[in-house]
Amino acid sequence: MPEPADVVRRFYDELWNEWRLDLVDELLATDLRFRGSRGAVLEGRDAFRAYAEATRRGFPDWHNEVDELLVEGDRVAARLTWSGTSTGPFEGREATGARVRYVGAAFFRVASGAIATAWVVGDTEAFRRSLDM
Asked: Distance between CA 20 and CA 119 in Å, rounded?
């Protein structure tokens, strides 16, 4: 069974940063509960896939930098910096060409080697300001 920190690192490094959506079934629990920093509340792998695909359409170069990782049993906390360039439609807005960058944190519970819950919070005001520039 993989360590919780390794699962979360792969979630960001491979699934998100490399757009390896084929890893959804391996890294995420069937009954995943996910709350994204911009307000998305999702349940299940298919909902997460759609969320990731929408992000990819809007920001094909989206990057998740794990600045710090803390682990306590099956719980993992990550301090993150997110960045990308708005080159496609996203959340009802047309591409702006703006480069966005914002910080936040994510809190995970890993069960049986897969992410069961994820709660992500970020400086969404900085995200929106960057997008409008």
From this structure: 21
Say if CB 92 and CB 125 are below 8 A apart.
no
pLDDT in tens, 38-68: 888 999 999 999 999 999 999 999 999 999 9
In 7-112, the DSSP E strands lie at 28-35, 41-43, 63-72, 75-85, 99-111
Does 3.10.450.50 match the CATH number of domain 4-132?
Answer: yes
Q: Are strands 75-85 and 114-122 parallel, antiparallel or unpaired?
A: unpaired
**Could you tell me the residue ranges of all domains in the chain?**
4-132
> Per residue in 94-119, pLDDT tens?
999 999 999 999 999 999 999 999 99
Q: What is the DSSP string of 92-131?
A: TB-----EEEEEEEEEEEEETTEEEEEEEEE-HHHHHHHH
Supply 111's token pair.
Answer: 């069960």
